[in-house]
């Protein structure tokens, strides 16, 4: 059985030709009433199993993002970001995000 998901946003350090063939390094999912259960459950488990280094669940209503990092094959919560700057340190690239600039 194949499960196909479409993340709201992702970071891939490798070159992408026509479609994504390798696992991205960071995935962001924005929670809504319609998607919350799936994003916090099924997608989190899937991304963990597929080896996505960081999974970020964004809660716009709360002006918060929950950052999980892969540690020995399991996600561990790193930070509940509201106005912090977080550096996603990856094997082939690095991406910084200033969460204070996201919320209006």
Give the DSSP E fraction (strand runs of 2 or more residues): 35-45%
Runs with pLDDT <50, length 5+? none
In which order are the strands of the major sheet placed? 1-2-3-4-5
According to DSSP, the number of beta strands is 7
Helix fraction bin: 10-25%
Order of helices and strands: EEHEEEEE
Separation of the first and last Cα atoms: 41 Å
Shape: globular
The total count of helices amounts to: 1
Describe the model:
14% of the residues lie in helices and 38% in strands. The termini are far apart. The strands form 2 sheets. A 5-stranded mixed sheet has the order 1-2-3-4-5, with helices on one face. The chain has a two-stranded antiparallel ribbon with strand order 6-7. Helix 1 links the parallel strand 2 (26-30) and strand 3. It contains 1 helix and 7 strands; from the N terminus they run E-E-H-E-E-E-E-E. It has 104 residues and is mainly β. The protein has a single domain, classed as 3-Layer(aba) Sandwich (Rossmann fold), CATH 3.40.50.
Structure at a glance:
The protein is mainly beta. The chain contains 1 helix and 7 strands.
Topology overview:
Elements: E1 9-11, E2 26-30, H1 36-50, E3 54-59, E4 64-71, E5 74-81, E6 85-89, E7 94-98
Parallel strand pairs: 2-3
Antiparallel strand pairs: 1-2, 3-4, 4-5, 6-7
């Amino acid at each position: 059985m194949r499960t196909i998901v479409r993340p709201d946003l992702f970071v891939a350090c490798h070159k992408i030709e026509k479609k994504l063939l390798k696992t991205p390094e960071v995935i962001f999912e924005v929670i809504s009433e319609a998607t919350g259960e799936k994003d916090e459950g099924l997608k989190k488990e899937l991304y963990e199993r597929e080896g996505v280094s960081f999974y970020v669940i964004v809660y716009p209503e709360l002006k918060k993002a929950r950052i999980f990092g892969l540690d020995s094959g399991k996600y561990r919560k790193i930070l509940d970001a509201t106005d912090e700057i977080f550096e996603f340190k990856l094997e082939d690239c690095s991406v910084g995000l200033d969460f204070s600039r996201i919320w209006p």
